[in-house]
Every structure is written in structure tokens, then in C-alpha cells.
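Practice problem 4.
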């Protein structure tokens, strides 16, 4: 029996195939964003079909997808996977739930995700879910990569309109996107992978933060850590797991730690798609 775990985020999708003993058989990675808040259904089907062509027959699948935060989106994704893989043994989680179920050992726990988007989510000992944020790039995701980049873009346009002083990050922004002037940045909105493309600048900005970047990071982390504290207090716990690409930035992690100095922070460094494959094995392995 073979089992497939899939991790779909704002910048990439990864899949891990394992056998019934838990041995890794194959790892597949595709560099494209698949967040359900920004990818249309036909494109999503095309990406998942590409993964299907690279795998053997599977007996169970667990899917972890950013943007799969409502029953309607979960059903949409479930229907697509059932259609393409032609099996019923499929479970769909959002990217926070999936990690909680992987880590759950009978006690309350909580994680914060800071990648392309952001989300704080916890689970009590009875596996009831509580969450804050993660409502998508149009409405929320404060402190995430897309939000950080967008805030820099906004200030760049304010500079162009003579509403603020110059900051060196604006030159780096133009160089990163090979634009001669700030006005050209508006064309990025029309790109198919606009969310991935725009959020990618956050990593570059964090490498050498300017005064403006520092202000934006403080703004985002202040909001994100307030959400963390609310969730931790509701669960009456002090430990928080950290997941997502932004925590790989030394500067971002340091600022986050400064805001959360009274709490115990535990950075996660595991392969989510592999963990989902192991969950699939746990759920669907027949004795």
C-alpha cells in the first residue's frame, strides 16, 4: 500500500509518497502558488494532475492546503482530488490544522504560521480548533510575506506621489522586479502567479532591513503576536510552535521573539508533505 501527503502553499506545492512501512518512495515539488484564495479551479486541477502523473497508485491521501479554511473550500479541494486520483480515502486540512494533527499528543497546543500568509491556530485536548487570522490576502494575513511586500509597495507609491520621504528599499524593489520606475510595478497585478511573485520580495527585504522595513515588520509582528497571545491564553498554555518561511529570517525571528519573550517558542523544521503522508498511513492503512 502507498500513501501520499501533499503540502500546498502560497509559493509551492510538495508531495511525498511513502509505502506502508513509512519508507519514502518519492518527493515531488512544483514551484507555483496554490493558495485557494488566489488560484482558479482549472489551474488547480492542472497542477494536481501533474502530481498524479508523477506518482503510482495510492491508497490514501492527506492534503494540507493554505486557503482551505472553510468547509466550502475543503469540499472544493476534496472533489478535485477525488476526480483526479479516483479514490475516496482522502482527508483535506488547512495548513494549520494539518500541523496540529501531526503534533497532537493528547494535550493542548498552538502554532503560528508566517509564510506567504499568516495564521495562528490551536487545538485543545478534545481536539477542538481555535484560530485567529489567516483570512486571505485581501482581508488579513498581517505579518505574512504577501502583506509585508504589499506594505512596501504601498509606501513606494506614496513616495512616487510625494506623500512620504524616500527609503532605500524602493531602489531594491525596482531592481528586484527589473522595473525602471515605480509605475511599472502595477503590471505585477496582472500576472498569473501574482501572489507568489509579490510575496517573494519579502525575503529580499528582510535580508537587510531599512528603516521603513523595520517599521513595517514591527507593525505586522505586533498584530501577529497579539493574536498568538490571545490563542495561547484561551488554551491556558505557554508553548508556541513556529512554522513558515519567514521564521527562517534571522531578523524576523528575532523581532518575533522580542515580542513573545514571556513565552516558550519552538521553531518547527519538518517536511509537511512527509508528515501528511504519515497521517494518511495512520488513517488508511488496513491491517
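Answer key:
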Amino acid at each position: 500500500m502507498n500513501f501520499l501527503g501533499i503540502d500546498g502553499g502560497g509559493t509551492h506545492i510538495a508531495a511525498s509518497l511513502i509505502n506502508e512501512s513509512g519508507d519514502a518512495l518519492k518527493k515531488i515539488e512544483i514551484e507555483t502558488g496554490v493558495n485557494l484564495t488566489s488560484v482558479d479551479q482549472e489551474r488547480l486541477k492542472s497542477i494536481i494532475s501533474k502530481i498524479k502523473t508523477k506518482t503510482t497508485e495510492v491508497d490514501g491521501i492527506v492534503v494540507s492546503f493554505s486557503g482551505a479554511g472553510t468547509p466550502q473550500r475543503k469540499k472544493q479541494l476534496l472533489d478535485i482530488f477525488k476526480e483526479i486520483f479516483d479514490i475516496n480515502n482522502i482527508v483535506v486540512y488547512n495548513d494549520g490544522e494539518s500541523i496540529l494533527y501531526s503534533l497532537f499528543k493528547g494535550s493542548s497546543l498552538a502554532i503560528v504560521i508566517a509564510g506567504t500568509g499568516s495564521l495562528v491556530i490551536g487545538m485543545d485536548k478534545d481536539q477542538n480548533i481555535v484560530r485567529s487570522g489567516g483570512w486571505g490576502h485581501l482581508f488579513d494575513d498581517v505579518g505574512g510575506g504577501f502583506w509585508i511586500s504589499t506594505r512596501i509597495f504601498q509606501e513606494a507609491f506614496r513616495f512616487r506621489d510625494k506623500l512620504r520621504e524616500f527609503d532605500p528599499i524602493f531602489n531594491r524593489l525596482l531592481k528586484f522586479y527589473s522595473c525602471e520606475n515605480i509605475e511599472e510595478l502595477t503590471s505585477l497585478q496582472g500576472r498569473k502567479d501574482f501572489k507568489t511573485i509579490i510575496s517573494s520580495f519579502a525575503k529580499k527585504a528582510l535580508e537587510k532591513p531599512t528603516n521603513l522595513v523595520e517599521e513595517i515588520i514591527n507593525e505586522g509582528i505586533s498584530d501577529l503576536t497579539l493574536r498568538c497571545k490571545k490563542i495561547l491564553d484561551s488554551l491556558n498554555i505557554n508553548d508556541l510552535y513556529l512554522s513558515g518561511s519567514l521564521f527562517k529570517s534571522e531578523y524576523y525571528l528575532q523581532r518575533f521573539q522580542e515580542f513573545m519573550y514571556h513565552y516558550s517558542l519552538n521553531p518547527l523544521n519538518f517536511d509537511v508533505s512527509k508528515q501528511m503522508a504519515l497521517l494518511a498511513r495512520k488513517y488508511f492503512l488496513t491491517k
